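Regression check, zinc ion case 854:
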Amino acid sequence: MKDASPATAPKTFYLKDYTPFGYDAESVHLTFRLAPETTRVISRIRFAPKPDAADRTFFLHGEELKLISAKIDGQAVTPELVEGGLKCEVPGAPFTWEAEVEINPAGNTALEGLYMSNRMYCTQCEAEGFRKITYYPDRPDVMSTFTVRIEGDEPVMLSNGNPMGQGEGWAEWHDPWPKPAYLFALVAGDLVNHPGSFTTKSGREVELNIWVRPGDEHKCAFGMEALKKSMKWDEDVYGLEYDLDLFNIVAVDDFNMGAMENKGLNIFNSSCVLASPETSTDANFERIEAIIAHEYFHNWTGNRITCRDWFQLCLKEGLTVFRDAQFTADMRSEPVKRIEDVIALRARQFPEDNGPLAHPPRPEQFQEINNFYTATVYEKGAEVIGMLKRLVGDENYYKALKLYFERHDGQACTIEDWLKVFEDATGRGLSQFKLWYSQAGTPRLKVSEDYADGTYTLTFEQSTPPTPGQPDKAPRVIPVAVGLLSPNGDEVRGTEVLELTEAKQSFTYQGLASKPVPSILREFSAPVILERETSNAERAFLLAHDTDPFNRWEAGNALAKEVRVAMVLDGAAPDAAYLDALEKLVRDDDQDPAFRALVLTPPSQSDIAQTLFDRGHTPDPQKIYDAAETFTQTLAQQLETSLPRLYAATTVDGPYAPDAEGAGKRALNGRILSLLTRLDGGEQAARQYQAADNMTQQYAALGALLKAENGEAQSQAFFKQWQDDRLVMDKWFALQIACAAPEKTAATAAALTRHPLFSMKNPNRFRAVFGALAGHHAGFHHASGEGYQLLADNLIALDKLNPQTTARMCAAFQTWKRYDAGRQSLIRAQLTRIAGTDGLSRDTTEMVTRILDA
Ligand code: ZN
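Current build output:
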């Protein structure tokens, strides 16, 4: 291997090296003179040396800036330009720093800093993008008030906070709340607003707007309602009120992430805010509602209380994900939301936590912080808060949160601050619990049981496999919610939370008339992998009888996995008892349709691969695919006579509404349709495609037809109908790949990259194609290696334009050590090729290095 290391080794940043900045930024004034390729940014910042500062180095971050001039207290100065910023001699007393820089928004394809999307100016500053706008101490513990003047001829020019005035060619904004630079935002362009208003609990009128490009106005109503619901919910549940007179949301087509919580001016990937029944699926509606809530909730958990440094990212993200999950559970269905979240956790976080990219929710080092906006920081970060809440109880949880807001409002905080609040509010020590923040890896929890003379004993053994840099792990505090059922299905012990603190620990129950059936880890009370030897009969019993809806689903899911594993390993036929149990449940109209749809959702093929690997086998993706196909085909045949009735019974009458009840019914209806299509070749799906007046049904029908290789006509019709709608076109790109047979997946994706509407510059479109490719387990891992090669080719090309999105997508390779030697060497070759690319970004370099070093 020649020259796989970049010219300069990237710098590693460590949590332990934290030192405060030596100056307070008392106020920030910014003037923007907008021009696509030559925007001028003039800053005027009042700095005051901190009396107790250990380090008075005056270093300002700055990247890709052309410095025009700099002044201190009105006198021209010549700062020393250094790697990543500048240094300057400054007075020992408060002073005013002024700088003028030039930047190029039109040439900014990385979508970080100030950039252009469809002729619209917009910004993305988290985590370290503000340094691409002007020289500044770009770190979250430097908080200041921002006054912004925008000069340009854009019809709409927005920034954070409240409008101060506007006239021909200018607008001024002032944000009274001190904030770190990562929450700065500016938007300017030809935009129209969907207005709304909200009266806060103390009676303040807040003006709300969703700003979109002309033509998208009809896609704003749902987002606006979601915003109002979020504002009300945060008042009702957390007592938190909005703190400005204006709240703006802007939809942007080119965006690296989902959305961004800039103070008073949230910027959204248009896919995460724009919705209409004709263009959005039920899943889209649910996600949009959740993301609007998430960004809104950040106003308190993130903005009013922010992070001291980026190692603390899960302080705001874990908590805000936890809060948005509570919100969705309240708005929709608690068990359904919990099941969906656990499916997502296993699909995204478990592979991360059990592979080369494993890191603790609070990492201790990074090269590029953008690489740590991960499922571990977000989703596991939220799980950790869920465990904390379970351990201290609801009342104590809200008491601690109240103290958190009282004590830390206006501050930049750490995980230590957060845990201290819980310790002070509850009197409970949390030093062992804190291991959840510092240890990576998913704990395995082995359970064994014993019954004699009315006494039932559960014994738990916890262990966590080694992860990069962490060979040994200490036992953690694990809350395990357990209930006991009697063999006739009655609950003999309601849910109780057992607190594990040791490597091995037993709990006994006395006075039981017979050996109970345990229901362990109810509600998925901890993000662990449960290892328990049990029979399929017992799992089927729990699927039928468990009083905890999560564990009912979980029993079915575990059973589904066992059945598939047996099919893959022994070539066994699908287990008849399981098929019967499924049939019974699916046909039971007393059961919630959303729940039935979830039970019918097969475990992911990647999950089966991991399970096989964990049990010492080498997973064969094609065999896993074949088992899934055989299973579904057999299920369809078994249900044959009931399918038409079920299809009719789950068809929602009347006009489409994106509520949870209708969505649940349509989800089940979609699963029935896909089974039906296996028997009728697509007749019913073609009828549904014709008749559909909403995207959920149109998309389900198209997917079923494409899977049956009988959807060419509909696919063309779909394209004709929607070619001018970017978001719907993303679906069209993705669905063709997702539904392709494994041997055709890479070729389908490759052909789509040659389509006129494919674009490397639009992250949504790139992700539509390559997210679908990487998500097609058997297609991506096809023995030909074509999937690996295609992804690598495109990552190399994208890295020159957009390092952030490239680096994130490298994670597709993170599970490579699961597979056979042939696949491993194919993947290693691609990773090595990426790593050896000239001028590879710091982002991508860090990711491929970590993945390769496994
Ligand atoms: Zn967030």
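Comparison notes: Residues 294, 298, 317, 320 surround zinc ion (CB under 6 Å). The first strand starts at residue 13 and ends at 14. No diff flagged against the previous build.
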